């Protein structure tokens, strides 16, 4: 399989972004290649396009399947497995968020809850617990907010994002109308 310059640029960039999303460069490249390919793609085609070993491809495909980002597709008359994205870009983005939440945010919230149940032994630990409580509350709020955003769907989310700056101006205007009140209250 020969990649065009446009697809090569995108695949290479997705590889760099992969580490920020929670998986390695090669897995990011594989996801991009599968998502950008018009037709289902085989493991050998992935290996050839990215110039990587079949073993590396197999491990990457397993990881992408564990994240529920790709799926196999049967091609009539073929014995090979073919791979396609496991949904729309919106669904893939939601799955990456869900997996990162499970792997990063949920364990952090669990640890914070445990630490907040401990009885502080001195004023420094009391201060530390207050700070940890703020972190916990922030993570809980951000998580709840992002889960709400996920339920909106792409069309409503686009509308909400377009309203973003307007909402900020409305909140600033409200603060001017109600002295002593801020949007943080």
TrEMBL record:
CDD domains noted in UniProt: HTH_ARSR (cd00090)
- What family is this? Belongs to the GbsR family.
Q: Which InterPro entries match?
A: ArsR-like_HTH (IPR011991), HTH-GbsR_regulator (IPR052362), HTH_MarR-typ (IPR000835), MJ1563 (IPR026282), WH-like_DNA-bd_sf (IPR036388), WH_DNA-bd_sf (IPR036390)
Source organism, top-level taxon: Bacteria
Source species: Alteromonas salexigens
Q: Where is the HTH marR-type domain?
A: 22-79
Q: What is this protein called?
A: HTH-type transcriptional regulator
One family from Pfam that matches here is MarR_2
Keyword terms of this UniProt record: DNA-binding, Transcription, Transcription regulation
Q: Transferase: is it a keyword of this entry?
A: no
């Amino acid at each position: 399989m020969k990649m065009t310059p446009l697809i090569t640029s995108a695949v290479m960039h997705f590889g760099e972004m992969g580490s920020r999303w929670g998986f390695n460069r090669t897995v990011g490249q594989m996801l991009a290649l599968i998502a950008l390919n018009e037709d289902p793609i085989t493991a050998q085609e992935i290996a050839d396009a990215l110039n990587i070993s079949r073993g590396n491809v197999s491990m990457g495909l397993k990881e992408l399947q564990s994240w529920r980002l790709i799926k196999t597709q049967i091609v009539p008359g073929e014995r090979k497995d073919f791979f396609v994205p496991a949904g729309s870009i919106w669904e893939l983005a939601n799955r990456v968020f869900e997996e990162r939440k499970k792997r990063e945010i949920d364990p952090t919230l669990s640890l914070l809850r445990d630490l907040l149940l401990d009885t502080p032994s001195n004023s420094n630990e009391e201060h530390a617990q207050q700070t940890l409580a703020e972190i916990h509350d922030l993570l809980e709020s951000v998580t709840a907010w992002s889960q709400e955003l996920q339920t909106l769907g792409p069309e409503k989310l686009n509308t909400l994002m377009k309203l973003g700056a307007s909402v900020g101006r409305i909140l600033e205007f409200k603060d001017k109308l109600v002295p002593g009140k801020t949007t943080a209250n």
